[in-house]
Amino acid sequence: MVLLLAAACVALVIGSLVSDQFAEQTVAGLATGGIFGSLALALVLIYRATEVINFAQGQMAMFTTYIAWQLMQWGIGYWGAFVLTLGIAFAGGVALLAFALGAVFVRDWTFERMGIKQAGGGVIAVVIVTIGMLILLEGAAAWIWSPEIKSFPSAFPTRPIRVGGVAFSIQDLGTIGVALGSVVVLWVFFQFTKVGLAMRAAALRPFAARLVGVRVNAMLALGWGLAAVLGAIAGLMIAPTIFLQPTMMDTILIYAFAAAVLGGIESPAGAVVGGLALGVVLNLLGTYVHFVTSELRLPVALGMLLIVLLIKPTGLFGHRVVRKV
Q: Model-level pTM?
């Protein structure tokens, strides 16, 4: 996989040097792929800790984007609203786990990861609750702010900058920087802080982590909060392009699912790489393969996902896990 990734990077560099249009579309694809990767990473964070897919992740991102829009309507500047929204998103992710999912999830998840079987809904109940949250958040956004399409300001100028004969959008470059910057900060947090180490231990070995004093449920709540922050970043970055509406993240979430499974549903690095690869490939196909119109982008993405899963079911960076049952 490392060799394949290196070969793909070399091919993109060569193509960008040969063709100005290829370079422009590659950068635009990386901007879109960075958003896919951020949301895919949020899905992977929750799945690694709980083995549950949060189907409300996209709607959580959409709702926090509306909150940012409202803050700006009240006169708060973009970056002030951005920071406040991330804090609200974190609190919302923790609250969602504590109140909406706590009754059906935390107890059963803790016992199940400790090897104790419990009667009850288990994973299916949690999936149903996340789908219910999806519907609730979408309806609440339409009720509070109306379903009308709203414009959302961009953090970066839309004017291009030219490098030789190539025109790069400042908005695309800024989106790439924010998306990849958030991923790097999260990686540093997990690798070099005691809290990050405790979160990794709680996700992988909850019973052993509890024995050495790790508050497993608190680490779980922290993971949901960080996933909500990543989703909020994805929503804030994509909103200027697709406009603000209650259903804005529906299709983006499907792309994020595809990116997460493409890279390996338990691999954070795979989620980011899968998102970037998906964004670049779809952009290049839309430019050079004329029948791949905007309406066919999603079927093409799902087709790519199907091919990868037929060849490597665990995803590009996933590994096979043997469990005793």
A: 0.86
